[in-house]
Amino acid sequence: HEAGHALIATVSVGLSVGDTSIVARGDSAGRAAVSVATPGVLTPATLDALLAALLGGRAAEDVMFGEISAGAGGGHGSDLGRATQLAVMAELSLGMGSQGLIWYPQVSSENLAALFARRPDLEKLVRRRLDTAYRRARKVVEANVPTVRLLAERLLVRKAMAADEVSALVGGAAVASVAPTLPSASPDVSASPNVH
User: pLDDT tens-digit profile of 82-116?
Assistant: First the structure.
């Protein structure tokens, strides 16, 4: 799971990967610190890469094991919950969606179901954005199964890897990336989630 996040963050332009661990902390079974490479600057292409990185653990489980675990979904703090919130922000608050140049206040995770009930069109847009990011994540994982396996094996032995170790391991492998799917712009926001 964490190997998928780390791989996608490492090969995606605009993202960087920090420490990656499979040591359980709180509700999380592990963590890959993924952040926007230029803090405070989130372009549509970087946002798409960040969504793919958030869904990279799920994609790695799906590709490597043929099924996903509950760790790939769950509450509002889960990878899927955070990806959904980010996709909603792209559509409503960042001016990166089909809503155009308009700003709506951020929607809390508690109010998201009500918003989707009132705005099925928004739910479709968010679902489409998430589906696109997931397809991208799967393609990257599928193209890099040996690297995902190597990262996972190293994490099983060491339990944690520093950012430079992850980058060196991925950089030393023959890695394939998948280009982003949406055009670029450059609004300024802070978005540096750690994925689980």
Answer: 999 999 999 998 989 887 888 888 888 788 889 99
What pLDDT, in 10s, does the model give residues 115-150?
999 999 999 999 999 999 999 999 999 999 999 999
Mention every residue, 6+ apart, whose C-beta is less than 8 A from residue 141: 4, 7, 8, 56, 59, 60, 62, 63, 64, 148
Active site residue 2: yes
Place of tokens 């920090």: 18
Which single residue is written with the structure tokens 């798409």? 48
Using alpha carbons only, give the angle 62, 67, 69 rounded to the nearest 5 degrees: 100
Q: How many CB atoms lie within 10 A of CB 147?
A: 24
Active-site option among 2, 61, 91, 123: 2
In angstroms, rounded to a whole number, what is the distance separating the alpha carbons of residues 180 and 141? Answer: 15
What is the distance between the alpha carbons of residues 103 and 101, in angstroms, rounded to a whole number?
7
All residues at 6 or more sequence positions from 55 whose CB lies less than 8 Å from its CB, including other chains? 79, 80, 83, 130, 133, 134, 137
Q: Is the dihedral of CA 188, 186, 91, 57 positive or negative?
A: negative
